[in-house]
Amino acid sequence: MDFQKLAREEILGVRPYIPGKPVEELQRERGLAEVIKLASNENPHGPSPAVLEVLEKGCRELNRYPDDCVFYLHRALTEHLQVDEERIFIGAGSVEILYLLANVFAKPGENLIYATPSFVIYAIVSQISQGTGIAVPIDEDFRHDLEAMAETVNEKTKLVFIANPDNPTGTYNSADKLERFMETVPQNVLVAVDEAYYEYVDAPDYPRTIEWLDRYPNLIILRTFSKIHSLAGLRVGYSISHPDLVSLLERVRPPFNVNSLSQVAALTALKETERVERISRENNAARRHVAEELRKLGCRVLDSQTNFVMAFLPIDANKAYNALLDKGVIIRPMGSFGTDMNAVRISVGLEDENRRLIETVAELLSESSSSSSSSS
User: What superfamily does domain 20-46+274-375 belong to in CATH?
Assistant: First the structure.
């Protein structure tokens, strides 16, 4: 049977999201005793003892369906964010919310706008929706070109996706620039501002989007527990928006979409404000150190407001990826994101991991330089 003939045409053009192999499999394939993974923007700190404790208790009730209303997490987010509970929608990761937004709102003939390079899921959800995706190149400073995105908006535009800070660049748009964009875009165009790395940001001019909700009913803010809260493996995220938009998302939300362990873990993690602040401070100091050391090695490194950096190596990114992998260090080449072939994304790790990264990159670049010298 030719299943491709049965599938919707839009699906055939989708380039699937390609995750990395499990660390254990890479160790087996390469015969490595130890591997450090700095490729997926994960928090190198595991869940807190309090989270692990509630997970252990929750495992005893896995025979029961989860609370479909996610009642306690809704209430906690309401208090934490100081917004009305009717504004909050909780999903199985913020990615699920992106899928729902595209499928609920984009009609045939309409378009969805996103930056490139940016989070690859925006392109995927646009392709599988009934609308058409339009990619707008980032500007020369590697930021979302909000002026160009605003100029791209037309009477057929339904959704705009903005990652702030962006992935994979780590750059951000200031409050002034984003506010000008919101003022320019018609209110019948929904603007989804993805703030997955919100808790890491220390830039003083970063937008306080929650304060804009009353002014811009077309604004949708997305956040996640996957990053600073160390819950990437449990998949829970949320959005804050107009209550009427939330009610539409609720109509298509799969029943019991947020599992019971995710709910109790997120509820516990949300209360750990001191832990979040400490990890943010440690990450940002380590991020600056990694960027500085890479620059000393001759790499261009973009200023970042996240838990990763985007660097441009003096050698091909795919060759660097494989060579570093042989040395037990996993980074992410950025070719699949539509970037320069020398670009890589490197997550900030623990102190020992960051030290090993710098030493390994220095070793690789020295070997590459020696090889080039001998061949010439």
Answer: Aspartate Aminotransferase, domain 1 (3.90.1150.10)
